[in-house]
Amino acid sequence: MVMHRRLVRIAYSDFWPTFDPADNWFSDVLATRFQLQLSDQPEVLLHSVYGAGYQQYRCTRLLVSFENRGWGFSRTDWAATSDYHRSPRHLRLPLWATLLPDPFEQPVVDPQSILAAKTGFAATVVSNGHSRTRERVHDQLASYREVASGGRHRNNVGGPVVDKLSFLSHHKFSLAFENSSYPGYSTEKLLHALQADTVPIYWGDPLIGRDFNTRRFLSYHEFPSERALIDRVIELDRDDDAYCAMLSEPWFAGGVTPECARRNWFLDWFETAITSTAAPVATHRYRPDIIVRRISDRRQIHDRYRSRVT
Asked: What residue spans define the domains of the chain?
């Protein structure tokens, strides 16, 4: 029996420069439940944070942001971000969750064989030097053994590497540092480090243990000091059994794939949004309650920016 799929007129706005409205993760997932039609007159708009084109649309707006930026419901109706937010209109969707297959199966590894193939101590692939925390840890590790840097920033391997995962996989440890720290904010960095069979040294989301198994990597946020973190890296570097034990651990907390990585959660959120009878915020943006909410959102965005840790 062929199930009828609801036709949804959709548009995209304000995504990153290489984003293709006709070929992207969101459309691929949504097409499993809905019949999508790209339209200049959409009933729903998916928009991100790299512009203000969304303001031209008076339909239902769905924000999708993988960035550590403030946001609010004064200009969008629904939001999918990496934040932990209690609104029923919000979906927690960190970037790494879109990079996993669903269902996800934990890779079976041979720790001893992985260790035997390692030729370097630690590696990192970074494009900018804006994170002061990452720079400090990098310097402390480099004072113990060489840290291979394969990105544009601090490159010491003859130029930017083409294959990040292959480059990382030759090293025992990898620096998986976000550009800034905020609860829930986690991108591809930790996932890539795990996929490369390294022991990641992670900083960014102080609540990362809600998703990932902290026995499989070293979370900066669980150590009393940077010195204690560095000392633990050195201990693992000198203890093959302890290092292999970490490689044997599952990636995710409790060995269970987090709910945010389940496609049905995104599909259910989207379906709830498009079937809601609430009038889009764009159609009553001059109401006093919306104006008050907009002022509150601006204050929250400003406070978040000022408190951001790098």
From this structure: 7-100+260-307, 111-255
Is the entire prediction scored with pTM above 0.85? yes
Cα separation, 106 vs 203, whole angstroms:
23
Determine the topology of domain 7-100+260-307 in CATH.
Answer: Rossmann fold (3.40.50)
CATH superfamily of 111-255: Glycosyl transferase family 10, C-terminal domain (3.40.50.11660)
Q: Are 202 and 218 in contact (CB under 8 A)?
A: yes
pLDDT tens per residue across all 310 residues of the chain: 446 899 999 999 999 999 999 999 999 999 999 999 999 999 999 999 999 999 999 999 999 999 999 999 999 999 999 999 999 999 999 999 999 999 999 999 999 999 999 999 999 999 988 899 999 999 999 999 999 999 999 999 999 999 999 999 999 999 999 999 999 999 999 999 999 999 999 999 999 999 999 999 999 999 999 999 999 999 999 999 999 999 999 999 999 999 999 999 999 999 999 999 999 998 876 666 666 566 566 666 556 655 567 7
> Three-class SS of residue 147?
strand
Q: And the tokens for 129?
A: 């030097």
